[in-house]
Design brief:
Elements (H helix, E strand, L loop, with lengths): L2 H10 L10 E3 L5 E4 L5 E3 L16 E2 H8 L7 E4 L1 E3 L6 E3 L6 E3 L6 E3 L6 E4 L3 E2 L6 H14 L5 H5 L1 H4 L6 E36 L2 E31 L6 H6 L9 E2 L9 E2 L6 H24 L3 E30 L2 E8 L5 E3 L5 H25 L1
Organism: Chitinophaga skermanii
Keywords: Membrane, Transmembrane, Transmembrane helix
Protein name: LSD1 subclass zinc finger protein
């Protein structure tokens, strides 16, 4: 089935047969729900575009890059998008919504609904598995389990965890795989031991003793190593701090689906900002430790030195994926704290305030325990 026909069929399936309203995807299910009349529609499988295993869907890297710079090529979808003037994030807007807030920095957004843009269609989507109510529960438990949280915050946790503040959004990622061939030059170090004599004083007398001394014999080494890398995941925007983004991992890749717009219905989607070429450079950096480890294994010996190595990336493929996150924020003592929840696993990563007095008394308690042990030790001595 041609791409245009597939897209048209999906769009028509997003309309409620009972009342004509738009259907929205229900996290953790294969169903779409009408928010007006409650009608539930199953996301049917069996189409040629949703039976392909998601992990096999990718595109030759060079072809994908060429298509991105050629509007006549590639698979594009029309969508309303808006860029935040505060943080720079670019996201899609829901139909018939003229204003909203940025899910990343909460700044107000206004979109011109008469102006839509052609954006690249992802290859795959990881559907929301955690609902907003489940996300709020995970957030509440996370907040209660933090050390040194102010008592006032704990008492008001119910009001701080507002389900209405949770925003569901799909984040863009590049997923790379590639064969690599690496030629290298280096040195192999093999240990050997010699016996040496030395003089020491024992009970006031000089004694001659022997001991083993380790040395390293170095020899030149060179060779070629071959490695295949799969699922090198790179965030395709800078809307979330890199450290926070990595802590959201791992993702349930076994739940990945071939892209189907119905899984996105009712949620925002961030548009990628990191170019695929830039993403591939980051992927290369993440492959590098594995390549160096393979070189050291190939050199062998007890120690290794890598003097030079050159990597050739053969037949690299790219997969454009969108992954689900619930984003929220809360204000405590006039400061805003951001929270991110992996909507496929429930992992919560966020910022939180600390109680000065709890930390102060904890340190006093530790010092008191150490002082007590010191006194007991002196008394026993």
């Amino acid at each position: 089935m041609p791409f245009e026909e597939k897209n048209s069929e999906i769009v028509s399936s997003l309309v409620c047969d009972s009342c004509g309203a738009k259907l929205e995807f229900q996290p953790g299910t294969q169903k779409l729900r009408c928010g007006y009349c409650g009608t539930m529609n199953e996301i049917e499988s069996g189409h040629d575009y949703d039976t392909t295993p998601a992990h096999t869907i990718s595109t030759d890297f060079a072809e994908f890059v060429e298509a991105e710079y050629n509007t006549a090529q590639g698979q594009k979808v029309s969508s309303y998008v808006v860029s935040c003037k505060q943080c720079g994030a670019t996201t899609t807007m829901l139909p018939n919504v003229a204003s909203d807030s940025c899910p990343f920095c909460t700044s107000p957004l206004v979109v011109n609904q008469s102006d839509s843009k052609q954006i690249t269609q992802p290859h795959v989507v990881l559907p929301f598995r955690i609902s907003d109510r489940q996300a709020a529960l995970f957030l509440f438990k996370w907040m209660k389990s933090r050390w040194f949280v102010p008592n006032k915050m704990l008492k008001n946790a119910d009001s701080l965890v507002d389900i209405r503040q949770l925003k569901g959004i799909y984040l863009p990622y590049w997923n790379f795989d590639s064969n690599t061939t690496t030629t290298y030059t280096g040195e192999r170090g093999d240990y050997y031991y010699t016996t040496e004599t030395y003089t020491t004083t024992v009970n006031g007398k000089q004694e001659i003793r022997t001991r083993q001394v380790r040395h390293t014999r170095w020899s030149r080494a060179s060779g070629t190593v071959y490695l295949y890398f799969d699922k090198i995941l790179v965030k395709a925007s800078a809307s979330i701090d890199a450290k926070v983004e990595r802590k959201l991992e791992p993702w349930r890749f076994e739940d990945m689906k071939a892209f189907d717009e119905r899984y996105l219905s009712g949620f925002r989607t961030e548009v990628y900002k990191t170019k695929p070429e830039e993403g591939f450079e980051t992927a290369k950096q993440r492959m590098d430790p594995g390549i160096q480890s393979a070189i050291r294994d190939d050199i062998g010996g007890d120690e290794q030195r890598i003097n030079d190595y050159r990597v050739t990336y053969e037949d690299p493929n790219i997969q454009y994926a969108v992954l689900p996150v619930w984003i929220s924020s809360y204000k405590y003592n006039n400061k805003v704290y951001n929270i991110y929840i992996n909507a496929s696993t429930g992992e919560v990563i966020g910022q939180r305030p600390y109680s000065f007095w709890k930390i102060f008394f904890f340190i006093l308690m530790i010092l008191g325990i150490l002082l007590l042990f010191a006194v007991i030790g002196q008394a026993a001595g």
